[in-house]
Amino acid sequence: MKLIDLHCDTVWKLMDLDKKGDLMENQCSVSIPGMKRAGTMAQFFACFVHVKDLAGGYEEGYRHVHEMIDFMEGQLKKFPENIAGAYSGEDVMRNDAEGKISAVLTVEEGGILNGKLKRLETLHQRGIRLMTPMWNDENCIGYPNSREPSVMEKGLKPFGIETVRRMGELGMAVDVSHASDGTFADILRYARGPVVASHSNCRELKRHPRNLTDRMIHDLAEIGGGAGLNFYGPFLGTEDASLIEEMTAHILHMIRCGGESFPMIGTDFDGFDGIERLDIPKAEDMEKLWDALKKKGVSESQLDQIWNGNALRILNALS
Ligand SMILES: [Zn+2]
Q: Does the global pTM surpass 0.85?
């Protein structure tokens, strides 16, 4: 079983939270030994900036994203036998054939563009292949998910429309996770390339503004997109637990609503804490989810699609 995980915050944890450790040895859920045991083919690493922690706001955030990319470049140089950068589906296949895990770099918090479209080009040149336009705050691109209906219905701003269009031209996937329902609809309207929800679940099973409604799953599936299953308890169903039973329910619902080409994996490893019971605490435990899904009747070929085929389709669609 070869895994592509569309979202982890391991770079953020290593650099900003723990301020120690590397991809080989750390106190994270994602590490090179763990990914090897999981059969990881590609791991998407988010350069996430929590803007409210930064005195310099989005400008400092933009500089920090470059520091995160520098850090990852250093890691790839440090462990060249084990992990290599990937910028396309082809790269992932080649790295895999050479026995290497692929690292795909992403940005989580498009506010760091701070109204400057040119920055997208720079980020693309530096290897960023997916961007999550917003986190949980309004920014220059548009509005985030919210329990407040007046925020939830608002969509992209004019700069956000330009951003989404440009991302498609450059060959950067647009990530609708964290977006408001209005932003989601606008992204689908204006996107020119692949769109995914890298780490979101089903709102029908757990009413949370970070999750996708059946209608959203349907519409996203229609344009060839998909969603990565998020392991965060409050998005699965139980506040202080991340349960396999609930993970399988969300995957089955995604298949029912969006078809077998829809579900992917987007663990959100190292992006949350405070969950008391974790059925899958680390990458190396991913096999448990595979086995649980198999028991629920998901076929081997569907599992391959969920584990890697659907994500490879997205990577292959990047021009
Ligand atoms: Zn996130």
A: yes
